[in-house]
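Please fill in the sequence for the structure shown.

STRUCTURE ENCODING:
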């Protein structure tokens, strides 16, 4: 690493180059994702079908345990488009978010490389680890949402009827918007250990405090899980709450190790 100090305008020029590279990569990957419409929407629309992997696993587990109450009956929810431009703009939106997801490792890397010269050696080491775990946990949250939380929520809400006379036809925009929002929320919730470590590092959080407030944390986790997954059943609530509670317990261990308390 060179010790040459750059002026403010030189730093600004470097930042401009970094941002231009990010935009170019995002645009290029978005175009590629847009071109692969069929495989892209095969992934996006998979949870709304009765043969989605989660539903098949639950039915297989129900057969193995000889617990017919656990099995999920066949269902069908039609997706519609009510606006002339809705499908095109939804396609663009999904392509962009797919590009953002695929390009995020490069974006994180290039931004970290830009700010790394201003960091000390130990700060670089910690920053690299934090970015790795933050990125990994976020993706775990997104995967949990895609494979478990969103399918169960969609199945419940999409088949819920106040009367047989009222047929559910869900708009494509509503479907995609819910999928993206739930994925984002779960990704953020999975950042609990990283945030706890950071607050412990700057002296704002102690392990003893987290242990004493564990009961309140459980209540908050359950409330948030109930809001995210409005299915009303204990199984789904447990599926969402359990990993978040485990992350809270892991956070206590991280905070104790970091703060020494």
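FILLED IN BY: designer on duty
SEQUENCE:
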């Amino acid at each position: 690493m060179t010790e040459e100090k750059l002026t403010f305008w030189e730093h600004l020029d470097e930042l401009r180059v970094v941002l231009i590279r990010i935009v170019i990569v995002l645009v290029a990957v978005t175009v590629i994702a847009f071109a692969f419409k069929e495989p892209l929407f095969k992934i996006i629309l998979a949870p709304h079908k009765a043969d989605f992997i989660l539903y098949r696993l639950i039915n297989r587990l129900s057969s193995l345990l000889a617990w017919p109450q656990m099995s999920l009956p066949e269902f069908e929810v039609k997706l519609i488009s009510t606006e002339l431009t809705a499908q095109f703009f939804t396609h663009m939106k999904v392509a962009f978010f797919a590009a953002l997801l695929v390009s995020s490792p490069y974006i994180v890397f290039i931004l970290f490389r830009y700010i790394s010269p201003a960091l000390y050696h130990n700060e670089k080491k910690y920053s690299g680890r934090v970015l790795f775990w933050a990125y990994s946990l976020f993706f775990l949250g997104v995967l949990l949402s895609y494979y478990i939380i969103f399918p169960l929520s969609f199945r419940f809400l999409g088949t819920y009827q106040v009367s047989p006379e009222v047929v559910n036809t869900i708009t494509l925009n509503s479907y995609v918007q819910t999928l993206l929002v739930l994925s984002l929320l779960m990704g953020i919730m999975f950042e609990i250990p990283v945030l706890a470590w950071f607050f412990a590092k700057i002296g704002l959080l102690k392990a003893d405090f987290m242990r004493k407030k564990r009961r309140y944390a459980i209540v908050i986790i359950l409330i948030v899980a109930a809001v995210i997954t409005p299915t009303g059943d204990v199984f789904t609530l447990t599926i969402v709450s359990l990993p978040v509670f485990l992350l809270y317990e892991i956070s206590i261990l991280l905070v104790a190790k970091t703060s020494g308390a």
